[in-house]
Amino acid sequence: MMWGNWTIVSEFVLVSFSNLSPELQALLFLLFLTVYLVTLMGNVLIILVTTADSALQNPMYFFLRNLSFLEIGFNLVIVPKMLGTLIIQDTTISFLGCASQMYFFFFFGAAECCLLATMAYDRYVAICDPLRYPIIMSRRACAQLATASWFSGFPVATVQTTWIFSFPFCGPNKVNHFFCDSPPVIALVCADTSLFELEALTATVLFILFPFLLILGSYVRILSAIFKMPSAEGKRKAFSTCSSHLLVVSLFYSTAILTYFRPRSSTSPESKKLLSLSYTVVTPMLNPIIYSLRNSEVKSALRRVIRRTLGPHKL
């Protein structure tokens, strides 16, 4: 579509993994489909178990349930379209579809960063101030913290997406990625984007780096408190309550920071795709596995739920 001297882009083409052979793309489809189904089932199971079992009605599992909802949303935004590009070569995405995908990617990503920081604060209070923990982390306070984490995604998603798609796209429409992330889309803009890039860097610092520093500060205090405990059993129990969260944070933030804080020239598009796969596809699958395998309370609750469902003689 022509407008003046510009070609107005009405759809985009996701390059995805089109440089690979059809056979390898088919294998990737089966792999990512398996990961996708495991992610959905694992996170739904976490939601059901933490809701149904009375022993898991505390702030830590309330926030874990919210994290599972976020991971499901994150996956639904990214993976189905990626699977389509692999199996039926459905690489086109409409202008509105690309904007919608980017909006919800920003929304769920920012909300997850804030929720992970909230979960770290919960562990900090539980270990460093256990006597006041029931008062500080009351049901109302937990609901407010979770709500704030969810709503934190709205401003960054609205500003970033609206700003990007208000730019003129007047030439190539191939997005060198498997979803509509901002760096490959902004590369197609035919206008000065320096002001936007400054705003994007600020938003990245606020919604990725700042929560990460809060988490880091919380765990410095947590580890300091654990090392001061007199008994080895107390240290073990205290560390076991936060080890799963620490592992999830490490997986999520290591790849996110490598993706968004490295200079463009030092990272190829293919390596960025691999890094993006880590926090958009792999980490959401690992979260329920980590919390299930490393948490005895979740495993015990899962057995109780299965026993109630199938009957005591069928477990």
UniProtKB/TrEMBL annotation:
Its main location: membrane. It is found in: Cell membrane. One of its GO terms (molecular function) is G protein-coupled receptor activity. Keywords: Cell membrane, G-protein coupled receptor, Membrane, Olfaction, Receptor, Sensory transduction, Transducer, Transmembrane, Transmembrane helix. This is Olfactory receptor. The chain crosses the membrane at residues 26-50, 62-83, 103-121, 142-165, 201-223, 244-262, 274-293. It comes from Suricata suricatta (Meerkat). Belongs to the G-protein coupled receptor 1 family. It is a multi-pass membrane protein. GO terms for cellular component: plasma membrane. CDD domains: 7tmA_OR10A-like. Putative odorant or sperm cell receptor. The keyword 4Fe-4S does not apply. SUPFAM superfamilies: Family A G protein-coupled receptor-like. Residues 42-291 form the G-protein coupled receptors family 1 profile domain.
